[in-house]
Amino acid sequence: MGKTKYLIGIDEAGRGPLAGPVAVGVITFQQTTNNKQQIKKILKGIRDSKKFSERQREEWYAKLKKLEKAGIIKTAVSLSGAKTIDERGIVTAIRRALARALKKLGIPPNSCRVLLDGTLCAPALYKNQKTIIRGDDTEPIISAASIIAKVSRDRRMKRLAKKFPGYDFEIHKGYGTKKHYRAIKKHGLSKIHRRSFLQNYFG
Description:
Blueprint: E1 5-13, E2 22-31, H1 36-42, H2 54-69, E3 74-80, H3 82-88, H4 90-105, E4 112-117, E5 129-132, H5 135-138, H6 140-163, H7 169-172, H8 178-187
Parallel strand pairs: 1-4, 4-5
Antiparallel strand pairs: 1-2, 2-3
């Protein structure tokens, strides 16, 4: 008898912003003959989080959390903050968050298949892994992970907006909008800005 297999989808959100953490979302379900079609039906219509409005992402997030509460899926999110990004680089920051998120699932590496978006890679212990370009728009399990990551990060940025007023983090979520650049020029860099991304704004 082979070991029970789990399918895991992984994606990140927040690679490019000037401020705030990067988030990695993971989602998994146990693959059985009975539930493959069920999961396919449940995730029908899901897409890359960037192609949804904020309201649509929140709706999908709520749906996924309801499924998790019912024991059908399991999700986890891990974040790496601006300090780690500045000290270690964005690639290492994402890699560390990814490893922590996988660890939260508590699934043995040899009992799962891992699908990742873009250029992401799981730790080498996960032998059965595949990185898929534009996987967040072609693989429902990765799309679901992108929703988990994006909504979790956006919610964090809204909380940070209250702690660091004046930057409108709740609006642009740390991305490099004109309004954000104007706020930086006016207020300087906050503790959650990625200084390595903003070398021209130190003074």
